[in-house]
Design a protein that fits this description.
DNA polymerase, domain 1, DNA integration, 3-stranded antiparallel β-sheet, DNA binding, 15 helices
Length: 304
């Protein structure tokens, strides 16, 4: 039954990384509760599992966001099982996501303009630790990726899969294939256009020297592969982290949404379409102010 469910997710066109995430969450549940995929499960079992994640005896408690992601995986699995008459009872019907006092602050982290400027400086100055890596090539590639993540807001798998044919420099727009194979078109700003043109020009020169680049249909490649993988991008981004702030590709997507809301005077619908959110509630999370925003607001009060 479990394999049938994974096949169903593939038929829906769900991204492979998402399917893997769902599978891992479900395997964790089955293993930790010592049950089989087709066993009868009650809401009490689910609540027991939640309590175990919140108050484990020998490991660090899981973040609320991680627990809610796992619950969402179970919700999808049991809804499918009941709908397809594999099971008679859905134990997730009365199970709600966990909430925290400041839930969105836990989930969303973005860069300020000052932090973004500092990051660009780090990219320029960070020494190369791997032998055989061209410093200029790495700098140009990493910089182009950071700009694309920040000024277009793609998910990391969308960026990894971005092809040369997806970018139209003349019309200044970019085609992105998102979750469920949904396609969205992103206008390319003049700021981003200059960075993309610079990278593509350099990439064309590299294609003359490296066969795997010449044969690659993708915008970004690695040292030995025609495609820069999701894990490769994640590792590259994390490499520029500061001791007090770990960087992730998704943080730049958050930054894109946050900056776009400011640029559009909080036009949620525009940002929803640009980010490829299927539900506007997802986009509305970015309306929440950061702590620094709140501190600035307090300082701006009249003084007497």
């Amino acid at each position: 039954m479990f394999s049938n469910y994974l096949a169903y997710l593939q038929e829906k066109g769900m991204a492979q990384n998402t399917i893997i995430s769902y599978a891992n969450d479900l395997k964790s549940f089955f293993h930790e509760m010592n049950i089989q995929p087709d066993d009868y499960v009650t809401a009490a079992d689910i609540r027991k599992w939640i309590n175990g994640m919140l108050s484990p005896t020998d490991v660090k408690p899981l973040a609320v966001s991680t627990i809610n992601r796992r619950l969402n995986s179970l919700r999808s699995y049991y809804a499918w099982a009941v709908k397809n008459q594999r099971l008679q009872h859905n134990p997730m019907i009365d199970i709600q996501d966990l909430k925290t006092a400041d839930e969105e602050s836990e989930k969303i982290m973005w860069l300020t303009e000052e932090e973004f400027g500092d990051l660009l400086d780090r990219i320029r100055k960070k020494p190369i630790k791997s032998r055989g890596v061209d410093p200029e090539e790495k700098y140009r590639r990493d910089r182009a990726i950071i700009y694309l993540l920040t000024y277009a807001g793609p998910r990391v798998d969308e960026l990894s899969n971005l092809k040369l044919t997806d970018i139209d420099l003349e019309l200044k727009r970019m085609r992105i294939v998102g979750k469920g194979n949904k396609v969205r078109t992103i206008p390319i700003s003049n700021t981003l256009l200059a960075e993309i043109e610079d990278w593509l020009s350099f990439r064309a020169e590299m294609a003359k020297k490296k066969p795997h680049v010449d044969q690659s249909p993708y915008v970004f490649y690695s040292q030995r592969s025609p495609k820069f993988t999701v894990r490769g991008i994640q590792t590259m981004v994390e490499g520029y982290s500061l001791p007090n702030k770990k960087l992730t590709p998704h943080m730049f997507r958050h930054t894109f949404c946050k900056w776009m809301l400011k640029a559009t005077n909080n036009d949620i619908e525009k940002v929803r379409r640009l980010a490829g959110h299927s539900n506007i509630a997802t986009t509305s999370r970015y309306l929440k102010d950061s702590y620094s925003d709140l501190a600035d607001a307090v300082e701006a009060m009249p003084r007497f």
